[in-house]
Amino acid sequence: MMVSTQTTLGPETTQPVLLARRAVVLSLFGGITALKIVAFMVLVRAGVAQPFVGTNAEMHYIPIADRLLSEGRFNGPELGPIARCPPGIRHSWP
């Protein structure tokens, strides 16, 4: 009687198993992420948690977003050095 020395499965049988495991892991990560987002939104609505707003956002991004929504423009001549920079350009502030 001949005993096989091959202990691992061939590539043709392991590929579907790996794909199934990957799909399970990715769906678990997606579900956990969705639960975390929903939990955070519930906590914010209840007033228990507040989103972090950094100094950069307070000084630059939030005013720009307000101006875009209220006036329909990104910048204007009264903004000084910010007025020369289009959206998406990384620059240093004086």
Structural write-up:
- The protein has helices at residues 11-46, 55-71.
- It has two helices and no strands.
- The longest helix is centred in the N-terminal third of the chain and has 36 residues, at 11-46.
- It is elongated and about 65 Å long.
- It is 56% helix and 0% strand.
- The model has no long low-confidence stretch (mean pLDDT 77).
- It has 94 residues and is mostly helical.
- It starts with 10 loop residues before the first helix and ends in a 23-residue tail after the last helix.
Layout of SSEs?
Blueprint lengths: L10 H36 L8 H17 L23
Secondary-structure element order, N to C: HH
Helices and strands: which structural class? mainly alpha
Number of strands: 0
The residue ranges in which pLDDT falls below 50 over 5 or more consecutive positions are: none
Radius of gyration: 26 Å
Strand content: under 5%
Task: Report the biggest beta sheet as strand number plus sense, adding barrel if it closes.
Answer: none
Please report the distance between the alpha carbons of the first and last residues. Answer: 83 Å
The dominant shape is elongated
